[in-house]
Amino acid sequence: MFLGGCAGSTSGGFKIIRVICLVKSLPHAVEQSYRPNVVRPLLIGGVPLDKETGRHMMMHFVVLTTVFSILTMFLWIFVGKEMGVANYPLPAPDFYAN
What we know:
There is one protein chain. The protein contains two helices and two strands. By secondary structure, the chain is mainly alpha-helical. The protein has a domain at 16-79. The chain has a two-stranded antiparallel ribbon with strand order 1-2. Helix 1 (16-34) crosses helix 2 (51-78). The longest helix has 28 residues, at 51-78.
């Protein structure tokens, strides 16, 4: 639900190409933080990715995960005990029965 879908699909989750770009751009961003004068393009499939596109994808990921987390917390708070099977009491095992 959260991750899946190709670039042109209408799935509601995070697209696979965005995950690939995000994974490739994280080391690139770390390198830029300690070596800001290095100019090294981020290549996706041999094509350089624009800096604005990378920033938009990172922001999309942050917003999507934040909204997902907040909605999950609201469901957990307001629905709470009805959500999981693990909340229901299970009978104790009878080890001494023949």
